[in-house]
Amino acid sequence: MSANESNVIHAFDLADAAQSVRHVFIRDLVLDCLIGVHKHEQNKPQRVRINLDMAVSEETSTHSDRLQDVVCYEDVAGGIRDLVASDHVNLVETLAENIAEICLSDARVRTARVRVEKLDVFEDAASAGVEIERIRSR
Fold it and tell me: Quick one: which of 5, 18, 64, 114 is 20 to 30 A from 39 by CA?
């Protein structure tokens, strides 16, 4: 398995036509983030890699070519960039939860799986982080 393949979230292997679900995803979004609980992390940005997969309800009756009819990954990425730029966060878990909230803010998103990795924590490891899955409460 290549390094890139190890970053792909396999929770949703296929879109599901029977359940009218498509998957919208963002892979390997790398941002500088003020993150960490340690004193040396308080004022020095660290690189984080974000991967996410959203299970999205499809409108089966109509398939248009209009951006407003889909969950726009550009809007999601923009929301994540704004979140990361807005303030220091202590935990990767908190950042992942906040990203999941951004994903689930669109009513069409049923499930969000989010992975946040700090890339420069250990010299002998590619990354350390957390992966969460959140389901829309009905």
Answer: 114
Question: In sequence order, what are the residues at sequence separation of 6 or more whose Cβ sits closer than 8 angstroms to the Cβ of residue 120?
Answer: 46, 47
Find tokens 């919208």 and name the residue.
24
The CATH number linked to 11 is 3.30.1130.10
Kindly report the pTM of this predicted structure: 0.85
Q: What is the pLDDT along the chain (138 residues), one digit of tens a residue?
A: 444 455 544 444 456 666 678 899 999 999 999 999 999 888 999 999 999 999 998 765 566 777 777 889 999 999 999 999 999 999 999 999 999 999 999 999 999 999 999 999 999 999 999 999 999 886
